[in-house]
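User: I'm writing a tutorial on reading structure tokens. Could you give me a worked example: one chain, its sequence, then its tokens, then a sentence or two explaining what the tokens reveal?
Assistant: Sure. Here is the example chain.
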Amino acid sequence: SDHMENIYGYLMKYTNLVTGWQYRFFVLNNDAGLLEYFVNEQSRHLKPRGTLQLAGAVISPSDEDSHTFTVNAASGEQYKLRATDAKERQHWVSRLQICTQHHTEAIGKNNPPLKSRSFSLASQGSANSPGVQRRPSQNAVSFFNVGHHRLPTGKRVPIMQPDHLVDVREMMSQAEGQQRDLIRSIECLPASGHLTSLDQDLLMLKATSMATMNCLNDCFHILQLQHASQQKGALPAGTTISWLEPKISLANHFKNGAAQNFPAEINKPASVREEQSSAEPCQLTREPEEINPDEELEDICDDKEDDLGAVEEQRSVILHLLSQLKLGMDLTRVVLPTFILEKRSLLEMYADFMSHPDLFIAITKGGSAEERMIRFVEYYLTSFHEGRKGAIAKKPYNPIIGETFHCSWRMPKSHMAADAATSSSAHSLSEQVTLCKDAEGRAEQECYTVKFVAEQVSHHPPVSGFYAECVERKMCVNAHVWTKSKFLGMSIGVTMVGEGVLHLLEHGEEYTFSLPCAYARSILTVPWVELGGKVNINCAKTGYSASINFHTKPFYGGKLHRVTGEVKQNMTNTVVCRVQGEWNSVLEFTYSNGETKYVDLTKLSVTRKRVRPLEKQGPCESRRLWQHVTESLRDGDIDKATEHKRALEERQRNEERLRAETETPWCTKYFLKDGDGWVYHKPLWKTVSAAQTQQTDSN
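And here are its predicted structure tokens:
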């Protein structure tokens, strides 16, 4: 009886993207089985701002933190709530679960239990078969009003009852029969003539109808699981409902109508079972590791993403996914299909932005503050082209928390010295680059070495930190990036939240910069990448700044991938350089003295990064961590790649749940929290400063 008492208090309620979280006064009415909320405690005597019927609801503590939980009503409505601490959350969750179970059992006593019944879209049958005949009383009005019926006690309870779920089952059976008839009618059309079975609109109709039925079956499957959990008790803490894969292979369904089942656990590849059970947890090896550059070899991987085959074959799966998304929806927690993935981690993609180390090193060799700012802008704008692997827009692997990536580049000092002696403002640095093939055999002291390290420092939100340095030139760059992706209809937008800082220690200068947004356009046809937004580069010491605009293509006319920008001296407001062109083609730089130069990015020499072989990499280094997914994608085995990817993600969730249960905080390996950002644990500006201090003391 103590557990069934009414409780009340303030909780934070998530409203929408604009309003965010708001404090509201909640009341658990155990007698009525209702969760009500008011603007504040003073308005408690007024009509509630909102009410949820708890009979048939699912109460789920969130795995993103120890304060948040959700109340999912049987009607489909959801409250996302947050308590002040873990203890208060547990208090609310336990009372809500007890109340939910009590009122759900009360309904079960007055209604027959829900019988299990499975459906297959590939099963044969007709809408005219006895099993799918609509009852005379069953119509659209009665279906959409099934949420409100009176119990024998006379209390109004807005809850879908078991007999109405049976009605839904029968209506779905009828819809499946009609959908099968539709597909048969289309496939019976002639192969040639005015209207054929290969008509593009009819093929799209087949795909969308199939995706719709899969989505409905997924929803019904969730209701069945929910009902089963209510029969056995509340769901365990940390339970989440993830995106469900299509129940059948849609592409094969169109070919022969045969359904395919997912392989059983016993049929999983041994490497998948190893990833799930015996893989070494990333949090067990958190001591920073010094990478020996001599162990790194020139990278021979060249995975260009120009193959549209998988995207073409799986278009119906994309339609299935799109049918479940809403405009503006945050895609951070959405599990995307494996076939749209690149064969590299996001951490490695950040490394590929550094594929022109000669231009990076040349920044600090500028003879004046103005020239150094212009050189940085040149390097910045040339980095995005090589960061993309091919013309097709695909998504890198989402890094797992604790994942790291190491690499380096070597540039012969004699080659860089020759560049410095011959360079002029009228000629691009890129035109003077000749890739030195014998750099591999040169001694360490004869080369400039640029070292790179990246680490996934946070999972929710997804934040990556990366750091690169050239000790010989006393320069380094430190950055952190939080990727926020949203569904925009026929495209996906990714905002790169964060900041980078370039340190030129020889000059005592710091250059802060941001990153543009990225868009995957035309995701139903040939997906392609577009950059957009305004970025700024600033040097507080010298007073020079740059403003760069990445222009998205207008609806009518206009060029693709257009970029414009200017470099100016803030104190005099004088523009010293203007730039225009395309970030993946040709850039034109115009200087204040009237000179102009062009940089053709398609002809820009690329220095291959150096990476340790897989057998020498740690268990949480990107290439070793994702090696089975990458190998499967190269072999074109999407199902196998999906199994490996799912195993890694499940392992991450289990480790995160364990840390939450044991209240063990996550410890990063190479980066430390610094205010709102992340900083490399041993940055060059600290080691150089310490060395100078030691030298001064010795003198």
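What the tokens reveal: Residues 112-160, 234-268, 420-444 have pLDDT under 50 and may be disordered. DSSP finds 16 helices and 28 strands in the chain.
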